[in-house]
Amino acid sequence: LSTVVPHHSLNKNWEEYMFENMPTSAAVTLLSKLQSDIRYAEGEVLHTLVANVGLKDLRVNKLQAFVVPSQTRLYPGETLTAQMLMAAIDSTQQPQVYVNGQLIKGNKISIKAGTPGKHTISGYMLIKDLAGNVIRRNFTQDYWVTGGPKPETYISPDGMQKTPAFEGMATIAADLMNVLYAGFDNPITISIPNTAQNDIQASMSGGSLISRGGGKFVARPTSVGNPVTISVSAKGRKIGEYKFRVRKLPDPAPYIAMGGDRFKSGGLSKAALMSAAGIHAAIDDGLLDIPFTVTSFRTVFFDNLGNAVPLSSNGSQFSAQQKEQFRHLSRNKRFYITNVVVHGPDGTTHTLNGRNMEVIVQ
């Protein structure tokens, strides 16, 4: 309100404008009407205020007790922490629940477990207050999928001892054999029943242990003859220790690649011999298949007088002199591949003694 006299009132204030030259009885009547209008307006304001009290409240008619745990998966020795809550609900009104953008029926959802690890359910709920306004509340819930049921027994790394399995026992399996090879990247699989793979940590003494994800590790011991110990933990809690023996890689066998086959000794057609580029070497015993690099080798031929004719190659390929000698070989003639020098994945270079190849031309 303003007390400034407006220009359109002929410079008269409110009292002069309303009551000048008005009989007393009429002025009293007008004042009574103004009082009545004010009381009516006051009543309307109070009625509106009272009517809107509690409109944004939610009606509840039932109490329920809930337990909210801090986590849904525990290891032996860990402490479970949970909140005990008393919650009020409205049994006459069912809220609308949306999970991942999809409306679900009722207030329960079933989700098929997928890959092991941590997963999250997220969504929101809609419910109306007493005024009919929609209230939205978001929610998220984490859950974990473990790697499968608990086995009945656990086989130790040496393959000999069986012990009862229990929750949280780690299983370590060397993917090649029950030994580790020094200077070589040995594939290792580590798993703990009912534990997600991303919760597993491992370390190794006497070498390095690198995680490749999905429970796969690469173990590289540094020295031969000294056992190594792999320690496994989950979420910072130590599960166990396991020892492995360390050996050096066995000597590979030299061979000539014939497509998908490996010729190691015996009869070989002259056409196949002439098409061969050189020799290779690998450990191939049914358990291991580890390639080596051939750095040099020697071929030994025999002339018509029985004299040995050695020819060397500084690499894995047949030299031009060796190829030329192949052209002069007749049927049933034989030669030998000897003094094969290889460089292994463990970083060592040595000669394959006693690993000679005999080739008989067919």
Describe this structure in words.
This protein has about 350 residues and is mainly β. It has 4 domains: about 5-50; about 60-145, no CATH class; about 155-245, Immunoglobulin-like (Sandwich), CATH 2.60.40.1080; about 255-360, no CATH class. Helices cover about 15% and strands about 45% of the residues. It has helices at about 15-20, 25-50, 270-275, 320-325, and strands at about 60-70, 80-90, 95-100, 100-105, 115-130, 135-145, 155, 160-165, 170-175, 180, 185-190, 200-205, 205-215, 215-220, 230-235, 235-245, 255-260, 260-265, 265-270, 280-285, 290-300, 310-315, 335-345, 350, 355-360. Strands 17, 18, 19, 20, 21, 22, 23, 24 and 25 form a 9-stranded mixed sheet that branches. It has a 4-stranded antiparallel sheet with strand order 4-3-5-6, with no helix packed on it. Strand 23 (about 335-345) and strand 24 form a beta hairpin. The longest helix is centred in the N-terminal third of the chain and has 29 residues, at about 25-50. The protein is elongated.
Helix content: 10-25%
H and E order: HHEEEEEEEEEEEEEEEEEEEHEEEHEEE
Please give the largest β-sheet. 9 strands, mixed
Gap between N and C termini: 121 Å
**Which spans have pLDDT < 50 for at least 5 consecutive residues?**
148-168
Question: What's the overall geometry?
Answer: elongated
Strand content bin: 35-45%
Q: Which oligomeric form is depicted?
A: single chain
Number of E-state strands: 25
How many DSSP H or I helices?
A: 4
Mean pLDDT: 81
Could you tell me the radius of gyration in angstroms? Answer: 45 Å
* Computed structural class: mainly beta
Q: Quickly count the domains.
A: 4
